[in-house]
Design brief:
Length: 336
Amino acid sequence: MSQPASTTSPAAPKSGPAAKHPRVLRLDVRTLSLLGVLAALIVVGGVTQPDSFLDTDNLQLILTLSSVIGVVTVGMTFVIISGGIDLSVGAIVALASVWATTVATQEYGFAGVLFTAILVGVGCGLVNGVLIAYGGMVPFIATLAMLASGRGLALQITDGKTQMVTVPGVLKLGERDSYVLGIPPLVLVFVAVTVIGWLILNRTTFGRRTVAVGGNAEAARLAGIDVRRQRLYLYLLSGLCCGIAAFLLIVLSGSGQNTNGNLYELDAIAAAIIGGTLLTGGRGTIVGSVLGVLIFTTIQNIFALNNLQSDVQQIAKGAIIVVAVLVQRRTASTSH
């Protein structure tokens, strides 16, 4: 007579709200911690350079610079969550930017520049995806090869020279007259990509499959997920983000150079890591990655305003990455 009560009572707490509360709390603490760091940096910038840092133009500059690397980071976050890595994002941005700013491409106007940048990015992502998903290559090696090839091809196209943009519509996007309610168009694109990325990761089957593949690829395969196709789609997504970022960089600089996107791969990976994305895959957030981008960009801006050398800036960035990884490991160990 007492057997039904004993079998049902232990299961009740596991399905209730209390069982999910610790996970939600950890997510909130992580996000709040990043917001706290960003707020502290704003205070530091405001105290050290009150006239320059808090100026509207400077804040717009921070957001604009964050937009280019931020779009790349959104794509990188998806790849890392799936258990992969993409070392070629900077080279893809460079290749897309120079291909889209050749004289032949600019003859097709605004649409020619935009679609060429996106097509080159997606094309490179397709090559990465096919090599990794269907060619069996390790992501590190495949994307490293794309890094070298992309940089080499970008140098060959430009012959080491800067390609100036002559399309009025592209140049106009970088002018103050194009701001919407004081917000640069590049920032609006960044916000749109961030929102779409968040929705895809958190509200679609694609996002759930991405997390599943990163958590346990074999279990995902047994559950009916086409792991190879999912990985192909993820590198296509990363390439698409690189193409968009390349166009934003063209608007920002008014030119295409083979040196564009230098070290973007490191910045994107670092931003994703401090945002809570596990390098081993299976966990990550778009919001955290975006906050990571804003933190790094703000640090760079503060250092520049205070005339601190770039080597000190790199040391600070490296220290932040180390601390973030240590925090990740401690969080992972305490959650088991």
